[in-house]
Amino acid sequence: MKLIILIGSFLIFSNLNYCQNKPGFFDYQEVKKSFKYYIKNLEKVELLKTKMNDSLISLVNSFKKRTSSICGNYTQLELEKQRKYLIEQHEKIETFRVYALNELKKEQDNLESITEEKISAIMKSFCGLKGILFLSKRTDLLYCENCEDYTAEFKKFINLKI
Predict the structure, then answer these.
(1) pLDDT category, 2, cuts 50, 70, 90?
(2) CB 88: neighbour CB atoms within 10 A?
(3) Could you tell me if 159 and 38 are in contact, meaning their C-beta atoms sit under 8 angstroms apart?
(4) What residues contact residue 85 under an 8 Å CB cut-off, 6+ apart?
(5) Which of 4, 39, 59, 88 lies at 20 to 30 Å from 19 by C-alpha?
(6) Which residue range(s) make up the domain with 44?
(7) Confidence at 62, pLDDT banded by 50, 70, 90
(8) What predicted TM-score, i.e. pTM, was given to this entire model?
């Protein structure tokens, strides 16, 4: 009798467990784009991009102004000074452009990395709460039979956690 009860309980609980542990996936890009932390910090990166772009435009405009003012009767020495100055300004613009691109890339990469870490940590909490044993990004899956799409639920959950 005990054996029948034990087997019956095992079947009931293992069946419930199976239903709760349905594997699933989520659309990482969709979740990331709705993640409040990402949105807020992406605005900061965009602001930095605007500032860098404005600074670069200012440098280019002063360069254009200087080049357009070079017309007239200059001595060879004066022309050589102007040429050296313009070369220096051009190098300054190019150096700033490279610096700005590197800084923006570093900020964007940092944002992506931290966002992925935060989403991963929240995903573990989500899986624990929902009893999900396997949850993956949609792009990481080659094939998953009977997988459930948890994107909508995870989007709601992730913004409640922050």
Answers:
(1) very low
(2) 10
(3) no
(4) 66
(5) 4
(6) 23-161
(7) confident
(8) 0.71
